[in-house]
Give the backbone structure.
Amino acid sequence: MDLLSLEDFKNVKSNSHWTSFDYLLEVTKVGQEKLLKRSFETRNGEERKRHESYLQYFLYNVAPEPQAMCKEENVGLIKNLNKRKRILREEDEEWEGLKYLKKIKKERPAAVVPVPVTDLPESFKQLIENMGGSGLVLVIQKQIYFSDMSRIASRLSMPFSQLKTHEFLTKAEAERLKNVKNFIKACLLEPSMKESGITFKRWNYGKSSSYVLNKGWNSVVESNGLKVGDTVQVWSFRVNSELCFALVKVQVPTKSQQ
């Protein structure tokens, strides 16, 4: 506390009959009043500082300074900040989850009607026979997804879980393709029945695997007008032991045809 000065006694009216004890009491009274005034100003300053800190917190998400708060307020603020962070994190996770679900929904367009597995068209069978092909087998029937249309990836994915059979490969070929750096050059009959070349390889992702028709796929997409949602079949056959594939667009039946 600061010492008392004459300025502190300017409003004091003395009495000529006061004794030394009366003067001492008046000095004590003035000192107490000065102490109370200083304490009140200090409390008001601290309260104002706290209010300004809280205002910054709620308006601008700026945490109040710990020294501006009492212990109870400090503990409460820490809990509030942790709760706020948890809510924001949950909102971020929820948003990421929504984006993932939207991506999956976009990635996997739902079929309008179930598409039954159909036989290879006679025109393809005749062409394969003319090529000297044999060992005809259906490898997969699937819808084309957005990922199959990516020009960067440039591949048609054939997940192991959707394959009709793995027997279209020899044991030596299947073993060789376990090394994802290896590939097989194969011939491809496009939906237009044009013959072209393509590479066939294996992709591993996590605990899952797929075979893919890779190099040359973008050209096949463009020249045959393939689009997301189309249903296609991939058939395998051999010409002089060379691995070949036939890519066929499946006609989706309308409701009137069901």
Summary: The first helix runs from residue 20 to 60. Confidence is low (pLDDT under 50) at residues 58-62, 87-98. The two ends are 97 Å apart (CA to CA). The beta strands are 134-143, 156-159, 183-189, 195-205, 208-213, 231-239, 242-249.
